[in-house]
Amino acid sequence: MPLPRSPRFRLSAAALLAAACTAGLLYSPARATDRPAGRDRPLREQLAELTRTPGGPPGAIAVLTRGPHTEMVRAGVADTGSGRPPTIGDHMRIASTAKAFSGAVALGLVDRGKLGLDDTLGRVLPRLPRAWHRVTLRQLLNHTSGLPDYTTDPEFIALVTEDPRRRFDSRRLLDFVADRPPGFRPGTRYAYSNSDNIAVALMAEAVTGRRYEELLDRLVYRPLDLRDTSLPQGYELPEPYLHGYEADPPRPPEDVSEVLSASGVWASGGIVSTPGDMTAFVRGYAGDRLLSAPTRRRQRAWVDGASEPAGPGANKAGLGLFRYTTRCGTVVGHTGNFPGYTQLVAATPDGERSLTFSVTTQINKTTDPELLERLRAVQEDFVCALLRR
Fold this sequence. Notes:
This protein is of the alpha+beta class.
């Protein structure tokens, strides 16, 4: 497709990269039901209203799984050209929910004795700046490292603005901020940084001698039977895909699905998946499919901090995972946003119930804070429906 060069897209790309880049049974897409009536009608109406809101997403899809039972709630369209509805098999950019995947890889290596939560960048990656050497894997995973966020670097933003499809060397992304010390003493406070998960992936590669993409396959995709999940380097999406849009009324929505190269976000937000695979992932990650019970306990040592964008209810940060405490109960998961997409994946702490919630425009505190608060309210209602007996 032609590369959009409109000023509004350039601004949104820069804003995104500065702000965001975010033991269940295996999920079977064939078992999902799409129910227009019953208790889920209010949820469907809320999604429909969200897609009709000025600046809102052209499409939205939520997958609620309770034990072996899976239901799909959707509204709007997957593609404004064809008008077809979203499906659980549509590929999409999962944005910063990819950080949960890097958490799964790193904590899987902790379980295997390859990494320790107190291992430092200086020990594992001595080539990185000396000022960063005391930062630990634990601090990277819960965003208390203080590492400067490479996506806010003026040179990086200029390169992305000049050519959104630019192919970056993903393993050199931290070079953009190598001349900057941590913003605070590591471990003393929370600050969400896309640099953290780049460093996590590099640590995983260093201690195993394997590429991060291979580690994802071995430690996450295969154990959970994720057949439609990948970490590309380019800008193209596999068919069929949920088209992502830049929504800026009164202009019609602009398709930005394939505008940005994934190489510039890599382990911080480059994964492509489907609602079906994301359901299987969050259930396995929250439950006992990927990590041992002792490692999950250490993962859930919560600190003050919200995901980006903030998830429903009150947010707390763990290791590659966030806790969302709503009026109806608590779930764990991750959020993310990227031009064209905003994501939430969440599950009960045992992984038995899960919610995958995807909309086809970028919504965060920078692009539209009022719409974000509305989105969070809708997400909370979906969590309440998920937890309802």
